[in-house]
Amino acid sequence: MTDRHHVVILALDGVVPFDLGTATQIFLAARDSAGNRLYQVTVCTPDGSAVRTELGFAIVPEHGPEVIPQADTLVVAGVHGTAALSDGVNDAAVTAALAARRPDARLMSICTGAFVLAAAGLLDGRPATTHWFWADAFRELFPQVALRPDVLFVDDGDILTSAGVGAGIDLCLHAVRQDFGSDVANRAARRCVVPPWREGGQSQFIERPVPSPTDTSTATTRAWAVARLHEPLDLRTLARHAKMSVRTFTRRFREETGVSPAEWLARQRVEHARKLLETTDLPIDAVARQAGFGTAVSLRQRLHATVGVAPSAYRRTFRI
Fold first, then answer.
1. At 75, phi and psi to the nearest 5?
2. Is 14 left (phi over 0), alpha (psi -120 to 50) or beta?
3. Confidence (pTM)
4. What residues does 44 pair with on adjacent strands?
5. What's the CA gap between 226 and 269, in Å, rounded?
6. Which of 5, 139, 158, 319 has a Cα-to-Cα distance from 145 of 20 to 30 A?
């Protein structure tokens, strides 16, 4: 294929190897129904030289900045131990590399890669995220950026940023879904043995890890609710299924997912509606009922608030 979407990954000195590998693995795992790869992935450095990683070994690239103008998507992997994190500045080679991208190219960062974008002034006045551990330092260095430290990733159209480490997977799968639809993204996720999307945001990881499913977990109720999105599900119904008081259920739910039950349920319904719009010919009214919105008007309002388009426009864009 010569018309693959070209992803160029920029590895800087102090690169986080996991972030570099995440983008490479997810995009190369995205294939059509015949097994053909949908992305071309190229790794480069600002000057074509080897870069050290944060873990004490070096990476020798096959390309330098000459490939950046070819990128449909330019990804900046996370970094540690650089001036972008300590002083909020990039060196001249990094600045030149970022400036070499085409004006219509999508720009993505993983984890602390957001510091590099912010140091270049590319996030000024825009929403963005980074690893929660670095949130205070980011705010201090870049007060002009609308930091959202509780989310897994931020999609601001032509610039997308993710939280740390595993959230890079979430962001790359989101990009695949936007480019080629949910079926391709789901197949890529299965190939990489990761979930196609995760619930909640970073807040579930800041104070404590996600609890293992137990008798006091809401995981069973969440699975039960996902299978019944077409039914009327309110907070009392969910709490009753979990055999908890509404207050206890709400508190534990937020601890485990990072969001309220109502927000989580709305997200699940939007995702189900998107899947139906992409993969079926159901009328919009039927999609609304099956996703639990009741009416096409409610679905239209929620989908427009979430992705910025009406159901019919979404179907035209992402129909498999």
1. -110, 130
2. left
3. 0.68
4. 10, 63
5. 8
6. 5
**Tens-digit pLDDT profile for residues 23-76:** 999 999 999 989 999 999 999 999 999 999 988 899 999 999 999 999 999 999
Instruction: Report the distance separating Cα 184 and Cα 136, nearest Å.
Output: 36
Q: How far apart are the first and last CA of the chain?
A: 19
Distances (CA, A) of 52 to 83, 159, 172: 15, 26, 24
Tokens 């590895």 belong to: 11
Indicate the residue type of 29: A
Predicted confidence (pLDDT) at residue 108 exceeds the cutoff of 60: yes
In this predicted model, what pLDDT tens digit does every residue of 255-279 receive, in sequence order? Answer: 888 789 999 999 899 989 988 998 8
Those residues whose C-beta lies under 8 Å from the C-beta of residue 91, and which sit 6 or more positions away, are: 83
pLDDT in tens, 173-206: 999 998 998 889 888 988 898 877 665 555 434 4
Give the H or E element holding residue 44.
strand 39-44
Amino acid in the structure at residue 9: I
Structure tokens at 78: 């996370």
12, 13, 18, 19: CA torsion to nearest 10: -30
Strand 127-128 relative to strand 106-109, pairing: unpaired
Tokens of residue 275, six digits? 């899947």
